[in-house]
Amino acid sequence: MYKTFRTEDIQKYRKFLSNVAALSKIFSASDKPLIHYRAVESIFCHCFQAEDLSRSDIAIDALRDRTGIGIKTFVKRGSIKQYEKIAEFNSDRNSYNDLDTMEKIKRISELRNKRLELALNLYNIDELIYHCIVRDSANIIIIESDMPTIDIENINITATRSNTIKFDDGIKEYSFNMSKSTLYCSFDTTDENKVDHFGVTILDNPMEFLDSLDFGNVTMLESEEFETIYLPLYTYERNTNNKCIAERSGLNQWNANGRLRNENEAYIPIPLKFRQSGLVGSFLPTRGISFGAYLPNGEIMQMKVCQEGNKALMSSPNKDLGKWLLRDVLNISTDELITMAHLTELGIDSIRIDKYPNGIFKINFATLDSYELFKVFFD
Could you tell me which residues are beta bridge partners of residue 87? Predict the structure, then answer.
């Protein structure tokens, strides 16, 4: 992808990375430049007109021309190949802890693949790649490589230690750290994957440079401010704090008793605490008033607060939400009840709703316990 970018955009990218790298000695005495990964993500998206997905809590950080991009930055440690973290599976530990070595790795690979498929489905992505900033002595190396799903049928265990399992699938090499529940992938820093390479100057006294700056006459740009709330995709078992998805309501509304229902009927529960806070009517429109919300794939879905007591966020028509969320994104079959296990496997259990000053809403998935952390504000 990098070699398809405009020359002027690449030059700007190099300049921005070099300028940030120049301040490395604020943080470290090393001759290897230090650039925070969030800075790399922001610079990449700015220079190459990519959509920043770093807040979306999924397997990719940016989107450009239907290509999902995982942006990584790491220090070159001398070897041609080195392992870097690509995923964590703490919440899924119970599903693989007691399995033997091969079955454990197959389970981890299955979980990894499901998260990649979630990203593909959410954003209508055609391909996934890694874009890596490799920080070497006074140099920056840029490499790109594919981000494939793991070929589970061809997994080969190559080494086992007390806490680590190394394996490959004929495409890439991986390492799984059991105590950290973390999956690492091997990145090849040889010329085959190198797409750019340039030197950087690290200032000996960055404090002196900062002291020379004067922002007194600089016009500050207005930031794109927005408000954010989180809603759970679950409720709780009666008289407990155990998360569950009811068999006949919420995401499984299509299975409710009574009238004949469309197979895609579903709604997102609006918890009592949220309703009592007054956010229905302030953040969300009052009951029955339709509003448009952008989905991650860029489409707009009409939504509204419904049901007695404002307890449901639905699409209009109702079947649109289930079609998108259950079928297109989560790949739940029409006769299958969705459970917490489905969400936990993907590392999500909430939705995030952003509201902008111009009245635009955007909806995305959020990681496990996002609503649990958010609801603290109502306690």
Answer: 183
Tokens at residue 1, please? 């992808």
Sign of CA dihedral 105, 110, 111, 112: positive
Cα distance between residue 165 and residue 173, in whole Å: 11
Phi/psi-derived region of residue 317, left when phi > 0, alpha when psi is between -120 and 50, beta in every other case: beta
The whole-model pTM stands at: 0.88
Find, among 348, 371, 378, the residue nearest to 279 by Cα: 378
Give the pLDDT confidence score for residue 273 in this predicted structure. 86
Residue 323 token pair: 């079609």
Per-residue tokens: 210? 């900062």
Q: Is 194 helix (H, G, I), strand (E, B) or coil?
A: strand
List the structure tokens of 91: 């919440």
Phi-psi map region of 75: left, alpha, beta (phi>0 left; psi -120 to 50 alpha): beta
- The region that residue 309 occupies, defined by phi over 0 for left and psi between -120 and 50 for alpha, beta otherwise, is left
Query: How do residues 298-349 score in pLDDT, each as one tens digit?
Result: 999 999 999 988 999 999 999 999 999 999 999 999 999 999 999 999 999 9
Task: Show contacts of 232-241: CB within 8 Å, 24+ apart.
Answer: 232/269, 232/271, 232/349, 232/350, 232/371, 233/268, 233/269, 233/343, 233/348, 233/349, 233/350, 233/351, 234/269, 234/340, 234/343, 234/349, 235/269
Q: Quick one: how far is CA 14 from the chain centroid?
A: 26
The residue behind tokens 């495409």 is 171
**Would you say 69 and 131 are in contact if contact means Cβ atoms under 8 Å apart?**
yes
| DSSP, residue by residue, 264-289 | T---EE--HHHHHTT-BTTTBPPTT-
- The bridge status of strand 67-75 relative to strand 127-136 is parallel
